[in-house]
Structures are given as C-alpha cells and as structure tokens.
Amino acid sequence: AYPDHVLIKEVGPRDGLQNEKSFLPTEKKVEWINELSESGLNYIEITSFVNPKWIPALADCYEVATQIKRKPGVTYAALVPNMKGLEKAMEADVDEVAVFMSASDTHSKKNINKTIDETLPVLSETVREARSAGKKVRGYLSTVFGCPYEGDVSGEEVLRITDRLLEMGVYEVSLGDTIGVGNPVQVETSLNHWTSRINPEYLALHFHNTRGMALANTLVGLKAGIHTYDGALGGLGGCPYAKGASGNVATDDLVYMLHEMGIQTGADLSRLAQAGRFIEEALGKPLDSHYMEVIRAG
Ligand code: HMG
Ligand code: MG
Fold first, then answer.
1. Which pLDDT belongs to residue 183?
2. What pLDDT score was predicted for residue 244?
3. Atom 13 of ligand 1, residue of closest alpha carbon
4. Residue 1: its pLDDT value, please?
5. 239 assigned to active site
6. How many angstroms does the Cα of residue 65 sit away from the middle of ligand 1?
7. How many Cβ atoms from other residues are within 10 Å of residue 2's Cβ?
8. 4: exposed, middle or buried (C-beta count within 10 Å: 0-12, 13-18, 19+)?
9. Most buried residue, 38, 42, 105, 238, by CB count within 10 Å?
10. Are 139 and 174 in contact (CB under 8 A)?
11. Is the pLDDT confidence value at 127 over 90?
C-alpha cells in the first residue's frame, strides 16, 4: 500500500546549483530559496560548506545561509564534509546539517579525496560535534545502485556504511543513485535486502534521473515503506565528481505524480511553477522537467 503522505526534501539550491557551469549571483540564489519557502515545501537544502575550490558554484555558502528569509516551519539545511564546514555552517546558524560519503572508494576519492574508511572517522567527529551543539544531522550515501568508476556496488557495503552512519547519530540516511543507473527490479531487490536489516523509517531515497528511471524507482521505494524523497525543482542537479551525473528527479514531476495518486506532500504546484519560472530566468535556460514544459506550453 502507498502512504498517505510523503516528505519531500528540496535539494535544488545545493545539488541543483553545484553542477551549474556559471556562477549564479548570491541575490538570485537567495531570492530563489525565498520563493521555494513559499511553495509549501518544508525542507530545503540551501547550500554546501565545502571547499570553494572544489565547488565554486557554492562559494557564497555563508552569504546565502545568512541572507535568506527563514520561514517558520521550514527547515533550512546545508551539506558539510568535515569540521571546518560544520564550524562555518554553525556560524551561519543553519537549522540542520548533512554529512555525505560514498559506497564506492573510487567515487569517494574523487569527490572528497578520501577512501570510505578514511572518511568514517571524519564524519563521526563531525556528527558528534553537530549533535552536541544541538543540530540534527542527516547522512547521505552515494553510488548505492552503481558507481561511475567501479560499476556494481556491494549491497553489503551499503548496509555496513548505513549502519555506521546511524550509529554515529544521523537521524536518516539518504541513499543516492548518484548517476541514475538503478532500475526498478534492482531497486526492489536492494531495498528488500536493506529494509530487512534497517527500519525504512531511517531511510530516504535520492534519485537522479539520468536515464529516466527516477519516478519508476520512486514507486518501488514507496512500496518498500520509504516515505522521504529528495528532489530538485525542474530536475536541476548532479555531482561534478561523478562522471556522467545529471539532474535529480524533478520535485515538480514528483509532486505531480504523488498528488495525482492521492498522496499528500504539502507542496503547492502552482507556487513551485512560479519558483521554477524564476530560476529559469535567472539561469537563462529552460528547466528539464516535464511539469515545467507543460507550464511553458501554457
Ligand atoms: P582536501 O583537499 O582533501 O581537504 O578536500 P584538506 O582537509 O586536505 O584541506 C585542504 C584545503 O581545503 C585547506 O585549505 C582547507 O582549509 C580547505 P588551504 O589550507 O589549502 O587553503 N578546506 C575547506 N574549505 C572550506 N570548507 C571546508 C573545507 N575543508 C577543507 N569544509 C574536501 C576535502 C572534502 C574539503 C573537498 O574534497 C571538498 O570540498 N569536496 C566537495 C565535494 C562536493 O561537494 N561534492 C558534491 C556534493 S556530494 C553529491 O553531490 C552527492 C549527493 O547529492 C548524493 C548523491 O547524489 O549520491 C549528496
Ligand atoms: Mg545528488
């Protein structure tokens, strides 16, 4: 059976913008996040406190986090890779932080310059410090359905790392199909395996739509009891350190599907479209989602 309600986490301002070639001016980012805040979404990942040499598109993380208008009831989160990022995120007083790592060593080295086992103690310290400062911490695990460099990824390794992240004190692990290679049968088999060992309450799904599989995989996730999904408005997104990665599942397409299925999200599609038109204009290009295409066609 499908749930009555699904929680959508909007990652457009982070995952969506980190992969953009040109630098979106800070005031445009701020205005877009303010628009998203009015769309009924109650969780927005606004930026990343990473090394700006690695992700120049988000070099204004501190300014964005301190200049947005915080709407009561909305959680404003940011990615942090280590203590340095956490300290800056705390200074900017984000509501929540997210730590991230990969289930394959090659992607891990390329993305954060460390292997999986070198990363675990870094995240452990970061999560401990964040929690002792009163911040909730989310975890991301990338490449769970396939790695652009290594191909197949071990389901046991996904379980091992997910367990470690939960032991550290993250409240949920968002399982990432970083390069959008998973298919519904694979996702079903993997989720059956993982949810036999981990309560699906502690899991979220983060689909990239590189090969058009994201909504089909979402249905499989819903049937496996997972009720939290990441999306980026209009289908922006991608990890610059994962070869061939492209956009996230479009929040607007996801919301459309769920609402048509009678599943609530709290989002207002017409306000999402308004935020979509804003970012299309700011980036100077149309968004890839089906829903925004319908909007453009009038
Ligand atoms: P490193 O070079 O190994 O770091 O990078 P280091 O500790 O050796 O320090 C080197 C320099 O970086 C030093 O500066 C540090 O101060 C600085 P220097 O002394 O040379 O001037 N530094 C920092 N500066 C700002 N903020 C920080 C920070 N930490 C160190 N937090 C590091 C390691 C992790 C920092 C680097 O590799 C990095 O920033 N990587 C970012 C990668 C990234 O953001 N990728 C995209 C997000 S993940 C993703 O998209 C997947 C996801 O969407 C899920 C999915 O789709 O699967 C989440
Ligand atoms: Mg991603």
1. 98
2. 87
3. 51
4. 86
5. yes
6. 18
7. 12
8. exposed
9. 238
10. yes
11. yes
- Ligand 1 contacts CB of residue 81 (under 6 A): yes
Ligand 2 centroid–CA 192 distance in Å is 22
pLDDT mean over 120-133: 98
Ligand 1 neighbourhood includes 194 CB (under 6 angstroms): no
Which of 45, 51, 208 should be mutated for ligand 1, with most atoms under 8 A from CB? Answer: 51
Instruction: Report the separation in Å between the CA atom of 251 and the middle of ligand 2, taken as the mean of its atom positions.
Output: 13
Q: Is the pLDDT of residue 147 over 90?
A: yes
Global pTM reads 0.98
Q: Looking at this predicted complex, what is its ipTM?
A: 0.98
Using a CB cutoff of 5 Å, list residues around ligand 2, an ion: 15
Asked whether the beta carbons of 234 and 250 are under 8 A apart, the reply is: yes
Instruction: Identify which of 50, 112, 116, 145 to mutate to test ligand 1's pocket (most ligand atoms within 8 A of the CB).
Output: 50
CA 94/CA 114 separation, integer angstroms: 26
Q: What is the pLDDT of residues 243-276, one digit of tens each?
A: 989 999 999 999 999 999 999 999 999 999 999 9
Q: Which atom of ligand 1 is least distant from the CA of 245?
A: 56
Set 78, 158, 239, 283: catalytic member: 239
